[in-house]
Amino acid sequence: MRFLISFTLFFTSTSIQAMDMQRSLELLHMTVFSQSFSPCGKYLAAGNNYGQIAIFSLSSALSSEAKEESKKPVVMFTAHDSPVYSLVSTDRQLISAGDGEVKAWNWSEIVKKGCKEAWSRRPPSRISLEIPEINCLLLNPKDNSLLLAGGDAQIYVMDMETGAFTNVYRGHKEYVHCLALREQVHECLSGSEDGTVRLWDARTGGQVHAIEVYKYEECCRPQYGKWIGCLATESDWMLCGGGPALTLWHLRSLTPTTIFPIQECQHQVMFYQDLILSAGQNPTINHYQISGDIKAQIPCTSRTIYSMNINDQSQENKVLTAAGNSPRVDVFTNFGYRAFSLMFV
Amino acid sequence: MSPPLFNFPEARSRFTSSIRDALNNKTIRPLLATFNQLSGSENEKKCTLDQAFRGVLEDEIIIHASSESFLAIISLAINGVTEGICTASTPFVLLGDVLDCLPLDNCDRIFTFVEKNVTTWKSNTFYSAGKNYLLRMCNDLLRRLSKSQNTVFCGRIQLFLARLFPLSEKSGLNLQSQFNLENVTVFNTSEHESTLGQKHIEDKDEGMEGIEEGEMGDDETPTNCSIPIDYNLYRKFWSLQDYFRNPVQCYDKSAWKTFLKYSDEVLAVFKSYKLDDTQASRKKLDELKAGGEHVYFAKFLTSEKLMDLQLSDCNFRRHILLQYLILFQYLKGQVKFKSSNYVLLDEQSLWIEDTTKLVHQLLCETPPVGDRFSKMIEHILNTEENWNAWKNEGCPSFVKERPMDSKPTRVVRKRPAPEDFLGKGNNKKIIMGNDELTRLWNLCPDNMDACKAENREYMPTLEEFFEEAIEQAVPENMVESEYKVVNNSNYGWRALRLLARRSPHFFQPTNQQFRSLPEYLENMVIKLAKELPPPSEEIKTGEDDEEDNDALLKENSESPDVRHQKPVTGEQIESFANKLGEHWKILAPYLEMKDFDIREIESDSEDVHMRAKLLLVAWQDREGPNATPDNLIVALNNARLSDLAESLTNDTENNS
């Protein structure tokens, strides 16, 4: 009897099931590349390899009466045809980057169905045949500009007021993975597939330095390549990792000071209080002391982590989120253990 | 003459005044005098005095006198009891009165007095009269004290009770192994109980609207700010306390499932969230130096805001992990009062085993000195097993009853001499009082024989041991002196020991001065080489024949047999010494031994055969190559030991 019912159900819901099947396959192969917290700190936007952006409500997921339902996206929409490689938030808008195009969405409207983009721009690429992807977005609040870097090995500066591209930093020989800022000295850093970290003067656009990380014996690892996957700065210090080992650099002397003993290539790194957090091709968030010792390795659900963020916007929702090659976004309330995961559906 | 009628009011007032008198003078004498002066039966007077004591104490309490004055009255009452003028229970009644009427601060001082006098209470006069009073008094006090605030005082009272009552006293024992089910840990299960939860609702309500109005982030006032809370973990974590409170739940199927799920989650968090020692240890170390901060949780604080801090508190973590171990011990252990259907399934036992390992590992990882803590806990839990066993056996008394019959027999029975019981026990067994000892003792029927058995002979023979040294000592072998074994101090030491046991040369007085052990050993080895039977292939050589012929030429008149000219061998000396035996002393003068030498030989050995051998060896040493059997035979004949001489002659002929 039960079989019969399910049989008939099967027929009536074939199309639905096909959809489900499609979606579960999509979920299986989903990679979350980018995340950004809303300016109020209560929402998290996450972009995946299908060009979708999902908005999660952190405050309801963290509330005392949170259910399974509150760990699913409040709203989800397709923003790009290409993967969403990078997301940043201004105090009003969410800016997303895909292949060759950057789009902005108003946070105030984003939770409504059928949200339209506020604006979109294409950097003036000189390569005509293929559209270069945008790997990294970075806001420079000092002069209210947005830095874009990616597949054409150039870094574009866009004025947020007018939407015009005001400057281009040229010098990298391969596509650019990551960007970082040194606000005190008006410098911008970029790490690229060509193995260099270049320092640019943010005012003139000229190159200040080029550090060829793979040429330093202490951190070079030819077996993993020379690409620079992640950058982070704090005053005179810089962290960089990727093919070469994760290393702490002193920027004034341009010397590597600490090599962190982690084997796997790292995709994300940041300074946090007196610690250094990194994540990459191992399913853990790694905590290091400045001295170079691994303090802890906190297990996550994804095999590889591509994106890691700390919510500084609201003290109440101050969590660490990490996402990678799974539809889950791990949330760490206390940075010592994974509390729960937000799920794409 | 009938005793005069007892006048209670008068007696009481007189007692009261003499108590005051006694208190002022700090002596019991006025009280004794009054007691003797008053007429009336002993019993009546005692009761009146008790009454008077209570009256005086009451007055003191009313005027809020110092605790010293109360104690003075009670001390006086104690003296009264020892003098036999008031009933034994009086001091306890007085103590009870005082403690009932005083605030807790003053009770502390009174109780110090009670603690000090524990020996008094335990003495024969007071113990039976006072134990119930004291127990009641202590329980009353405990009831008044807060379990979480006055932990030290509560502990003192418990310690006092433990000192007062004998170890076998069962009144404080949880005989039925019941759980304290009242110890419920309350935590916020629904948002209504939590202040934070309510705020969240507000947030949620205005959250969506806030975005719609486009004023995100602005409605957040700094006073509202707090930390994010993992409610999921919070609830699961504190739900576990219920299992620790009432472990019987674990035998329920669904409850066990939940327990399993929650535990796995919580332990995973502990595993992931490692505590670092660096900051904590230095602080702790300072605290320890300052006098040892002692950590005590009266009751768990279950606010969700504390969760984060608790997770990073190593003492808290230890508490929780220890709770696990205690629970597991109960679940695994044999407890008499556990119902028979409370048994673990195989998978449950397996899980418990794995988790115990994990918990111990986590304890080891928890600084400071985690591994030592873990070991200590393991030890404590092991000793706990003993208590469980004791309880399961129905709490037998620790005082061993002396068997009734043992005492008289011990007086009568004398310790038998070993000869009396050797081999005379049941089945000729000797009972040593311990199975293992008895078995060992009776392995062999005669232990003396067993000692002499050949397989117990571990000492090497002289030949065996010195073979190498002798070989090296032969100059023809041309062994460089530094490669000789005698230079090895280890070898030398063993050689000396062996010589002392086996060779008569060791005790031989000698005029030669040896500067070092190798030198001495070399000499000894040469001597031994002479004594020991020579290797067979060296016997017959052309040279020997020539030598023999020479000897024949020289001494053919003396003996027909050339071989008699050869000095006696060690073997010959050995066998002849056995034959000589007690006659050695007769022979000695004929071998030109001096009295001094004879005395020395006597002092060296008790055994006549050994003495005989010593004699012969001494002779051989002195004579050197002239120590031939012939010369010996001559000496024997001179000593009129002709039969011995004959046998020696036969022997030498046989040998040749």
Description of the molecule:
The complex is a heterodimer of chains A (345) and B (656). In chain A, 10% of the residues lie in helices and 45% in strands. Chain A contains 4 helices and 28 strands. Chain B has 656 residues and is mainly alpha-helical. Chain B folds into 5 domains: 8-172; 231-283 and 295-393, no CATH class; 420-458, no CATH class; 462-507 and 515-530, no CATH class; 570-654, Death Domain, Fas (Orthogonal Bundle). Chain B contains 31 helices and no strands. In chain B, helix 11 packs across helix 12 (253-272) and helix 26 packs antiparallel against helix 31. Chain B is elongated, with a radius of gyration of 48 Å. The N and C termini of chain B lie far apart (125 Å). Mean pLDDT of chain B is 77; it is low at 194-225 and 536-564. Chain B: InterPro entries: DEATH-like_dom_sf, Death_dom, THO_THOC1. Chain B: It is found in: Cytoplasm; Nucleus matrix; Nucleus, Nucleoplasm. Chain B: One of its GO terms (molecular function) is RNA binding. Chain B: Belongs to the THOC1 family. Chain B: One of its GO terms (cellular component) is cytoplasm.
Describe what is shown at a glance.
The complex is a heterodimer of chains A (345) and B (656). Chain A has four helices and 28 strands.
Overall shape of chain B: elongated
Tell me the quaternary state. Answer: heterodimer
First CA to last CA of chain A: what distance? 32 Å
How much strand of chain A?
A: over 45%
Radius of gyration of chain A: 21 Å
As a percent range, the share of strand residues of chain B is: under 5%
The chain pair with the largest interface is:
A-B, 41 and 41 residues
Radius of gyration of chain B: 48 Å
Question: How many DSSP-defined strands of chain A?
Answer: 28
Distance between the termini of chain B: 125 Å
**Strand line-up across the major sheet of chain A:** 1-2-3-4
Pfam family, one (chain B): Death
Keywords (chain B): Acetylation, Apoptosis, Cytoplasm, DNA-binding, Isopeptide bond, mRNA processing, mRNA splicing, mRNA transport, Nucleus, Phosphoprotein, RNA-binding, Transcription, Transcription regulation, Transport, Ubl conjugation
Subcellular location (chain B): Cytoplasm; Nucleus matrix; Nucleus, Nucleoplasm
Protein name (chain B): THO complex subunit 1
